[in-house]
Structure to design on (451 residues):
């Protein structure tokens, strides 16, 4: 095994010294020792440099300290760090956050197992509030549709130095969204964005109500991210408008529907006679998502009796069994990470109501007639994904089965596993393995009774 050499890059500005010491302590405790630390300092005093020498002598030989002469923001500091860094990979982290003792070990192990090592890696994270770790954020593998609406990846990334040289510098015009813009740039060029489903990063935050100034900053954060998402969508020929969510953590995009033509030959609308639609202009709404050049299938959210969800897409396990996402959860209660109300990439949608790209349908020679029920849709979505296409569920299109009679046979399942067994055994990357598998999915363990 060849050890990877990491360059940890931290930008310090308006630094809380107690939190910064905590961050340094977590770096000092790393099991994996092949790293250097670059600190780019925008504070007016020399407290950062003094703290390193006084409190952390064990890592002082690994630290490169540079006082920045001008305050040009985080992107500028990150570019300076990348310029001087000698590591194979750049690891960007916030000055007040913490790493687990095995963070660099996990990154090194992930890199060793990748065929394409010129990539970006992100991880799950939780939050440090006071002295407690709370609110685990278990994330999917890269989910393009979800990423258009929220920076669920966050600010902690590990970036191949070779890929940095290829993609170019961070955009210094971006005040808050320079990491987000970099990820958008990488995904638009189909560069690999990899995920470690483990809580090895701990983000410092607070549970106190936001001040007026903090709300303004959060609003600006969302607006800048949203503007970048809209800009990148427009490069793919998708016109969108947006608004910031009241939570000030995400934003809502509305795709332009004006190009929709009823009975157009570029799409196929499938709807079972036993399915009732509760929203208007459903095909039009679905088509707005299907217009994206890498989308093959778009489906609806299905509700059930008692103001509960039937499914918002599907997930699958390593045995090929598929489960209704968010099944049984209350419609009017917020779901895990708000995902039940956000359009996102999913393994499969409900075959009772969906829109399919006609050219993809012809390319894949339609559904496999040997398969029955939902397995036929699962197979189609898997084959589409093999060709680089996505399946998207759109929660604002609402449907309900009047009488659900879709039956999947055991023979069908055997054929499905013969065709896709190796891939299915790897699991559903769009669903985090740390969350429960089965019908009680997208619920944090130990919180089932809260619904």
């Amino acid at each position: 095994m060849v050890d990877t050499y990491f360059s940890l890059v931290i930008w310090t500005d308006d630094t809380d010294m107690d939190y910064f010491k905590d961050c340094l302590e977590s770096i000092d405790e790393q099991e994996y020792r092949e790293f250097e630390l670059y600190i780019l300092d925008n504070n007016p005093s020399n407290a950062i440099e003094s703290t390193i020498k006084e409190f952390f002598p064990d890592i002082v030989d690994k630290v490169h300290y540079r006082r920045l002469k001008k305050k040009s923001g985080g992107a500028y500091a990150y570019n300076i760090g990348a310029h001087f860094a000698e590591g194979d990979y750049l690891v960007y982290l916030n000055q007040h956050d913490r790493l687990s003792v095995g963070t660099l070990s996990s990154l090194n192990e992930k890199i060793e197992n990748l065929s394409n090592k010129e990539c970006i890696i992100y991880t799950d994270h939780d939050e440090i509030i006071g002295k407690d770790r709370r609110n685990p954020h278990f994330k999917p593998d890269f989910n393009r549709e979800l990423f258009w609406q929220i920076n669920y990846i966050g600010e902690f990334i590990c970036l191949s130095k070779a890929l940095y040289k290829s993609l170019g510098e961070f955009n210094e015009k971006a005040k808050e969204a320079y990491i987000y813009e970099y990820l958008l740039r990488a995904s638009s060029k189909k560069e690999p964005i990899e995920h470690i489903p483990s809580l090895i990063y701990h983000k410092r935050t607070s549970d106190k109500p936001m001040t007026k100034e903090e709300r303004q900053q959060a609003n600006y954060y969302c607006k800048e991210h949203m503007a970048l998402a809209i800009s990148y969508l427009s490069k793919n020929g998708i016109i969108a408008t947006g608004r910031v969510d009241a939570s000030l953590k995400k934003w809502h995009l509305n795709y332009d529907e004006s190009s929709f033509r009823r009975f157009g030959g570029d799409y196929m609308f499938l709807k079972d006679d036993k399915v009732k639609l509760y929203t208007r202009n459903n095909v039009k709404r679905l088509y707005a998502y299907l217009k994206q050049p890498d989308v093959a299938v778009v489906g609806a959210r299905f509700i059930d009796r008692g103001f509960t969800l039937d499914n918002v897409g599907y997930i699958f396990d390593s045995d090929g069994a598929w489960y209704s996402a968010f099944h049984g959860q209350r419609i009017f209660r917020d779901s895990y990470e708000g995902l039940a109300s956000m359009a996102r990439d999913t393994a499969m949608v409900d075959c009772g109501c969906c829109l399919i790209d006609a050219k993809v349908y012809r390319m894949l020679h339609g559904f496999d007639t040997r398969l029955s029920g939902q397995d036929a849709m699962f197979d189609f979505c898997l084959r589409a994904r093999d060709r680089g296409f996505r399946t998207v569920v759109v929660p604002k299109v609402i449907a309900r089965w009047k009488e659900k009679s879709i039956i999947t046979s055991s023979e069908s399942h055997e054929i499905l596993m013969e065709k896709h067994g190796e891939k299915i055994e790897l699991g559903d990357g769009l669903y985090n393995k740390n969350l429960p598998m089965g019908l009680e999915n997208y619920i944090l363990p130990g919180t089932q009774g809260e619904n």
